[in-house]
Amino acid sequence: MNSLSVSSLNNQIKSLLETTFLHVSVEGEVSRITFHNSGHVYFTLKDENSTISCVMFRANAMKMKFRLEEGMSVVLHGSVSVYTPRGSYQINCTKIEPAGAGALALAYEQLKKKLLAKGYFENKKVLPKSINSIALVTSATGAALQDMLHVASKRWPLVKITVIDTIVQGESSAQIIAQNIQRADALHVDVIIVGRGGGSIEDLWGFNEEVVADALFHCVTPVVSAVGHEIDYVISDFVADLRAPTPSAAMEMVLPDKTEMLMRLDDMSETLNSYIKRVIYNKQEKLDSLNKMFITHSFESKIDINEKEVDLLTKRFEQSFQYLVENRQNSIDNLQHDLNFSMQKLLHVKENMLNSLQGIYAGSDPSLSLKEGVAQIVVEGKRSTLKALHVNDIFELQSQKESVVAKVISKNNIK
Fold it and tell me: Is residue 34 situated within a structural domain?
């Protein structure tokens, strides 16, 4: 039996595998992902028991709507290829789908999460109250444009509308939508409406691309997203400053109703007329008042008023002077009466005090205080008491007529 070289064996294995497994669909879990600078994606697909190497080359990777993530369950489609120098084989992927969920739905949720983290859904601009110009980024041949123009002509025909014809469906639609949003922003209109009519998720997908979200986020002009029907939600709805359920509704939300505006003008006209009438009435009243004031402040009127004031002041002066004289006289009489009364009262008080002092003096005469058989104790010329005396003290007993010098022999307390 002839032996084979390693290269010959690998080439036979390559021919066998690549012709046998030309089209395969494999389900498993993604791991060990590498996004190469070249745009190729390398990863491993595994289940509970086995793993297999996989590669998706740049041309196919660019068509993917979602981004592969570690641990993601996928179904991949492709063919088995063998790298003969190493004797290794791998799956060359042409298409990858999420297991159990559509690729578009997953891509939608991934982009929504990414933009939310970047703050694309915050800091909404406020639409101007007065809209004079609008730029419509939509298909010039679509029914949505005709619906918006019809609503605009009914609600506010004075508005200036610029239509930027845009491809709103297909592979290149997202890039064109983003470019036309930038064109509309450069027109310096009051508001931009980006939209199209209803369709499948694939038809609306151009409004779910990140390039459109970037254009909307960096747009200086306020933007309204009006894509599909009321139940359709796309990424542009979250990034735009305002979402409209339909293109027609966008025009209704942005433009005022001319009928309502005419009614408001009628109300304003009536209010203005009432105001003018009120102003004229107030001015007439003020004119009449000024005329009366003019008459009141005329030269003749002032002389008459001054004469009356002089007469009045003269009478007041005479009355005041008379009152002052009478008041002074009454004050003098009252003072005289009060002075007499006070002198009498003072004399009476002084007389009582004098009598009282005389009585006190008479009562305090020593000659009257010492009765017969009574003597006062004097020690060193000063009156004293028995209690203050001690044994051997020398003291003097004085009565009205005699005095005796004595010495304390003994002292007893009488109980």
Answer: yes
